[in-house]
Each structure stands twice: as structure tokens, then as C-alpha cells.
Design brief:
Structural class: alpha/beta
Strand content: 15-25%
Shape: globular
Distance between the termini: 44 Å
Strand order of the largest sheet: 1-2-3-4-5-6
Number of strands: 6
Helix content: 40-55%
Length: 140
């Protein structure tokens, strides 16, 4: 049995989905800012100074007004990923690289079951489109 398969089985049994806690916000903010900026080839990104100031402010607004769900291992301190959404719009989803391709993004999308649109292009955009979500940047 491969280690990838055994990790996938272990995650399937031990993955927990919970609401984000205030102590999770720094992790969400840091990973959202960094991972979205790294997608620069799929969308235009402003200069570094502008991006980090302005986009950080927008993310902080979302953390106050949106719902965020966190995927953790059975050790609640080990975050695997998260989804931030408001109503029927997913604003961002992030999965740590080591935990990708194990169905965690699908589990988070299933947990936020009212989604119909997304406001950001991300690595998960193909998944959003397969699920029938519509791109609407004006919801951000």
C-alpha cells in the first residue's frame, strides 16, 4: 500500500470540519494573501505594496462578515485547509500543499452546501466550474 493511499484513508477517517476561530484568522490572512498573489499568471496582481495593504483590508472585512470553515486533522491545531464564503458565494478556498488531492476541498465545499458562485480565480476554479458555480467578481 502506498503512503499516499494510507494518508488518504487516514484523512478520510480523521478529518474534522469546524467553524473558524479568532486564533485561525492570522493563518487564513497569511495563506490567502500569499497563495492568491502566487497565482499572478492567471490574473493581474498590483504592485506588492499596494496588493498587501489593500487586499489584506478586503480579507479582514471578509473574516468579519463571512463564514469560514476549517478542515483539521483529529489534532484540532493542525489546519489542513479552509473555505471562506458568504451566502451562496465562495470567496476563497485554500488547502495546504501536502493535503491536496485527498478530497478536502470537496469536503469543505459540501459543508458549505448553498454555494452557487465564486468571487476569486484560484487553483480550485476548475472544481468550482465542475460543480456549476458561476464566476462573479462583484461579490467580493
Amino acid at each position: 500500500m502506498s503512503s499516499r493511499l494510507s494518508l488518504q484513508n487516514w484523512l478520510a477517517m480523521n478529518l474534522q470540519i469546524r467553524a473558524a476561530l479568532p486564533q485561525d484568522h492570522n493563518f487564513i490572512l497569511a495563506t490567502w494573501l500569499k497563495s492568491y498573489r502566487e497565482l499572478g499568471t492567471s490574473h493581474p496582481v498590483p504592485e506588492k505594496e499596494i496588493y498587501y495593504k489593500e487586499h489584506q483590508d478586503k480579507i479582514k472585512q471578509h473574516l468579519e462578515s463571512s463564514k469560514c470553515l476549517i478542515a483539521t486533522t483529529d489534532d484540532a491545531d493542525q489546519i489542513c485547509g479552509y473555505i471562506c464564503f458568504n451566502g451562496d458565494t465562495v470567496h476563497y478556498i485554500f488547502i495546504k500543499t501536502v493535503f491536496r488531492k485527498f478530497g478536502i476541498a470537496n469536503r469543505l465545499l459540501d459543508a458549505a452546501n448553498t454555494l452557487r458562485q465564486f468571487s476569486h480565480f484560484t487553483k480550485f476554479t476548475p472544481m468550482f466550474k465542475r460543480r456549476g458555480l458561476t464566476y462573479n467578481p462583484y461579490t467580493f
